[in-house]
Structure formats: C-alpha cells, structure tokens
Amino acid sequence: MPTITHDVIIIGSGAAGLTAAINLAQDRKVLVLAKGALDGGSTNWAQGGIAAVLDGGDSFTAHVEDTMIAGAGLNNRKTVEFVVSNAPAAIERLAELGVPFNAGEDFGERWHLTREGGHSHRRIVHVDDATGAAVQQALVKAAQDNPNITLMTDMVAIDLITSRHGEKYSGDGHVWGVYAYNKTTGHVDALLGRATILCTGGAGRTYLFSTAPRGATGDGIAMAWRAGCRVSNMEMNQFHPTCLYNLEVKNFLITEAVRGEGGRLKIPGTGYRFMPDFDSRAELAPRDIVARAIDHEIKRLGLDYVHLDISHKPPEFVKHHFPTIYARLLDLDIDITKEPIPVVPAQHYTCGGVVIDLDGRTDMPGLYAAGEVTESGLHGANRLASNSLLECFVFGEAAAKHIRAHWDDLPAPPSIRAWDESRVTDSDEEVIVQHNWREIRRFMWDYVGIVRTTKRLERAQHRIALLASEVDEYYGNFRVTPDLIELRNLLEVGRLIVRSALHRKESRGLHYTLDYPETLPQAVDTILAP
Length: 530
Hints:
- By secondary structure, the protein is of the alpha/beta class.
- The protein contains 13 helices and 20 strands.
- It has helices at 15-24, 60-70, 77-96, 131-144, 219-227, 256-260, 287-301, 315-321, 323-331, 388-405, 430-447, 454-477, 482-503, and strands at residues 3-5, 8-11, 30-33, 50-51, 113-114, 124-125, 149-152, 155-162, 175-182, 187-192, 195-198, 231-232, 237-244, 264-266, 306-309, 341-350, 353-355, 367-369, 374-375, 527-528.
- The chain has a five-stranded parallel β-sheet with strand order 7-3-2-11-18, covered by helices on one side. The chain has a four-stranded mixed β-sheet with strand order 1-10-9-8.
- The longest helix is centred in the C-terminal third of the chain and has 24 residues, at 454-477.
- The two termini are 29 Å apart.
C-alpha cells in the first residue's frame, strides 16, 4: 500500500486542525486529513460563537471564574487562565483571516457581543447564528491558498503508526503518523510525519440522540488509547438542552444564544415556565442544569418534548439574531416569531478525552492533540458555552508552536511496515455492522445518558463486552470499511465512558447518578491508563 511522508500529519480538518496547519505551514510541509469533506466536522455546525474578553467592563478574572463554576471545580485553573488570556488574540487572527463577525450596535462597540448561559458578561463574538460555518470557510480558504498545506478528503483514520509498526521494532512509543482507509482507492495508506496532531473531534455519535455530525465517532480518542495515551473524565458528556424535536429532521441544534437573548422554556399545553423552579438563573443556568430540568419534566409528565419560546420578542429582533434558525424552522412550518419551538436534550459535546499539556502534547512522543478530542483541563465537569471553538484555536496554535520550536528534537520516521490485508476477505455480512452500530447507540442513550445508576452502567458494560468480542473477530477476518472502523471506535469509547462513570462515586457537573447524588468535597479527575 502507498506510503506518503510529510513533515507533520494532522488528522482532522476543523478549527483545531486547520489552525495548527496554518501556523505550521510557515516553514513545514503539512498534510491535513479529512474523514469526509473538509467541512464535515463539528466546527461547521457551531451556531453560537466564540467567548473572549473584548468589552471594557469584562475581565479575564470573570471569564476564568465563569469557566470554573460551570466546570464544577474539575477544571485545571492554569489551563483556564492560559486559554482565556489567549482568547482576544485568537479572535483578532480570525478577523484578519476574514471572519465577518457581527459589528457592534452601540457607538464605540467594534463587534456585537452576546451572552450565553453561565456567562456573567456579554463576551460572545459571532457571525449571526452560524459562526462555525464562517470560521470553517475562512480557515479552509487560508489552508487552500498555502502551498505548504496538502488537504486530503475521504481519509478514514484507522490506527496511529507507532514504533511497534517499524521494520525494526523500537519500544520508545513514538508516533509516526497514521494508517488511513482511502475511500477513493478502497485501500489503506501509511501516512508518515515527524509529528502527528489529533484534531478528530468528539464522540457524540456514541449516543442515539446527538447534535454532532455523522463522523463524530470518537476515532482520535480510541486511536490514542490503543497507542498508549491516558484519557481523562470520559464520563463528562454534555447534553445540549435544546435540540429540535422533529421526526423528519434530526440533530438540528437550537443555539444557546436563543435562551441568552430571552428564550423561555415552557410546558406544552399549559405554557408554564419551569426553569425558575430549578435554578435562580432560570434559562441562563449552565447546560447540565437546564438539560436535567428538561429531562425531569419530560419524564415526570410523559412528554415527548418541551417548548422553547422567544415569540414574545419583536419579530425583527428574532429574525436579525437568528436568521438561520428562523429560515430552517419556517421550512418546517414553525414560525419562531409567533410560536414556540419543540425541543429535547441531545448529546452535544465530549468534555473528556486524551490528556494533553499546555503545549498540546500527549503521553506519546511525537503525538499532539487539540480540540474536542482532548481533556486539556479547560472544561472540567461541564463546558461553558462558546469555550469550545476557543479551545481549538488556542491549542491548535500551541501545538504548532511547540513542534516548530522543537523540530530538531523530532527524529525522521523509520521504515514502517505497510498495511497487510493479504489474509483477509471482503465481508458479505455488512448487516452485522449496522445492527451493532444501532444497538450501542441505543443502550448508551438508555443506560449512560443524562441521569445514571450503577445498575444501568453495569448493564451497558456487559453489552459493550459482548459486542466488542464480536467486532474484534469481525475486524480480524475482513477488510476494513469506514463503518467497521467507526463501530470499533464507538465501542472503545463507550467502554471508556462507562468505566469512568462507574469509577466516579459522586454527582458532579455532567455526571449525575441517583446512587451517589452528593458532590464530594474535593474535585478529582477520572484518569484511565492503558
């Protein structure tokens, strides 16, 4: 199979991957791999915006404290301070790349700043309600215009290439790149570099209901774990409170900003506004509190959904602030200027992931990571709204800076064995993969969702073990396919989530268990080592 060598291999073409590539391309040849299309990741779907201290009445201290409070104390304060202090510069660089942030509406205000749940100030810069798409477009253009960046689409990463894949075995654990299934050729390529950066996003598709794109199957987390990296806080999966409930259109997110701009959560039929019963901040409470409140009301009353209502605001205000949502829902015969939106919670963000330091380094030499695939210490037990894209920019740049500064310490790749498919055949039982895919997503939703119990987690653990044995046998006998690669990773990530959830004997942030409803005095990370 083909062996392709660049200076640096970046797996993922979203905000983190392209930020790293653009910074590295000043003096290095970079290969960026996209699982599907260049804009197929989560960045392109981010509606809300990017948090940064840009107003004179705001402060780094306030942004740090808001992040720590949302994260239920599980955050690493040094990481939070590092990201928050680098946020304004990151916004400036995006503006220089051509991201058209909404202009300020008041005299002297450069950009319009909105406020979202958990924030004590207006500090969210945005491009209407489609910030991610604008950011993705600007980053892709910059990458395409750079001769030192090669962009490859339809490349499905299978496993990291480590020292054990060398023609001569070396036990140093260095990562030299990745084996990836090329959808165009139907074969597996070995892609080599002195350094590799994981920017593969989260694991939202482990769950039945998720706002994440189709490809968010935890590939980077699973590959890093198999290679020897620690993972942390995998039990902390954020459920977005407000995903559109529609049997025809699935996974359409209703941004946090709708509640930030006055949207109210109500019981269908009665119109009763229930959030003040759960938290003094009402609809502006952090996402975990809002999601649990909605889940509680749905289960208590036997509802399919609750209502999110912003129709009390002037129609022009709603259309101006949420043009994408307004237009999309109008196509579904829902006029949000006149009627409420039916919403349900859905998995939205993977707060846990591969352990990294402030330079984006993982446990494995030569392997870096940035974005949702990581557990950097920024989010803790719950991500503060609009801190996710910010993390991508800051750590994508940090990883690139460290690689450039320590280039001479990174040895060239050794001779690596090609992918061997000489003893496998094509499968005639693809239905097994599809059936197991549906099964894991269903029981993860039922047993490892917003509210958990030890018995539910043990049931999930048992089912994962059974499915994993089936998939391991299947993987060993048949040629890989994109669906099989993703199913293997979904099971690995599901197993890590359940193990982490069983380990935490408390309720904190996004992890809420009926068996341990209290929060322990000390916040401790759940760290798993291979």
